[in-house]
Every structure is written in C-alpha cells, then in structure tokens.
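Notebook entry, structure prediction.
Reason for the run: the old model in the group folder had no record of what sequence produced it. Starting over properly, with the input documented here first.
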Amino acid sequence: MFSWFKPKKKSVVERVIEKKVENFQNPRMVLERFTAITGIHFNQKESITASKLINFCRNHSLYSFEELSHAMVNNQKILEALINMLTVNETYFFRESRQIFYLVEKIVLSQKAVRILCAPGSTGEEPYSIVMALLDRDVSPDRIEVVSLDINSDVVALANKGLYSARSLHKTSPHLQVKYFAKEGEMFKISDEIKNLVSFHTLNIFDDALFALGSFDAIFSRNMLIYFDEPTVLRAVERLSRLAKDRQSLLFFGHADFVKTPSVLVEHYEEGVKFYTPH
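New structure, fully documented this time:
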C-alpha cells in the first residue's frame, strides 16, 4: 500500500555528485600557478580575485582550488577560459595618443615601409588607432603592417570583429569616426580599410612562438608590465627588445610599467614623449 510514495532511487552519477563538497581554501596555489604560466600576478588583488575564482570553478563544475590547479595544467580549454576571465582590461581608441602621433611623424618623414607590434593589443583599439593615424597623414597602406597580440582569445576575437561602443570612440576625432566607422545600431563597425592592415594573434609573450612574428620598427607594450613582478618585467622587456629590427627601432611603454629603465633599453625623451631604443 502507498508504494508509489517510495523515494526514487538515485543514479550512480547523482550519488557521486551529492558526495562532492566544495573546498575553496588557499586560492594562492591557483594564482601562483597562473603567474608561472602567464607572468601575471595578483599580489594586490588576491581577495577580489579569489571570489572570481570561486565563481569560475562553479561554472566549470570544479569543487576545489586543487581541482582547478590540476585542470590548468591538463585541460587547455580550462586554462584559456581562466586567462580570458582574469585578463579583461578596458581600453579605447587613441589612449595615450602622444606616443602614437610621435611615431606617426617619424614614419611620415622616413618614407619607408614600417612594421609595428602591439603587445598586448587587447580588443584592437590601439593597433587600429595607429593605422588610422598613419592613413590620416597620407601614409600609403602598402607601407603599413601592424601585428597585434594578446593572451586573451576573447579580446582577440572582438578585435577581429571590429565592433565598438560609443564609449570606445570618445577620444576619436569626429572626422575619423565619419571616415572609418559605420554605425550599426548602437555600435560602430570599423572599416575593412583599417582592419586589413592589422593581423591579430592569441599569444603569450613568454611563448617562444613570439619570435616567429619577425622583427619590428616600432613596438608598443603599454599597461601590461604593471601586472608583472620586477623579475618578470625584466624578462618581458628583454624578450620584446629582441623583436626590434635594429637599434633605431622605437619601443613605447606605459607610464607606470616600470620605474627604472631596464638595462637592455636606452631611454629617450623628445617633444614631451618618452620612448626607448635597444641598448
């Protein structure tokens, strides 16, 4: 009697899941492994980052930081998703534009073809800004090649798409907006004329595939080094300096990227712009 009230027997899978208990202790083990892989550290943001890591684990059916640490080494998709989650940075067109315009004037005067690297290039605003500034000064497109790389595959995908909000264009002059963007609803699509002069790559600068990109006349690496500790900053700068075509190549960094000039660089200051050349 009343046999239909008997509880349904749980499957083996359900019983295993039921036994899983979350244990989110010691986020440092994950952060230290993340730093070892990417060079990026979170010394000043550990408590905030820990909450992000817990949400990440729950979204990927991981029940502890030990599981996440193991997955980072053995599951490339988990590692890529984690990198994408932890390395999203806001940028916009013509950010710190004095360095861009300084380089443009040098290129206009040289009359030579130029290869430029943006590392990182994030969602594309910086490399696209450089191309727009060059074309606006009547530099021929066949003289321009810009390479952009970023460790975050999501932002690289957005850069390739070339679709931006009005906020991203708030430092872009009206005539460049009209010339190189088409309105699509509330967004702005960058023209193929600009897109075709930039190639985007998902790449960690500590991966030796970096050197397969070739050499460059100018290198922009702005606001990346602030996420590295001092030894990693020096290592990153040394690797980037090896991409310089010659001792006349120009390297541009963010104002807070380092305090003391690394020994592989020579510091210069002209027309209110700080830049570097290889030592």
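Summary: Confidence is low (pLDDT under 50) at residues 12-19.
The old model has been moved to the deprecated folder.
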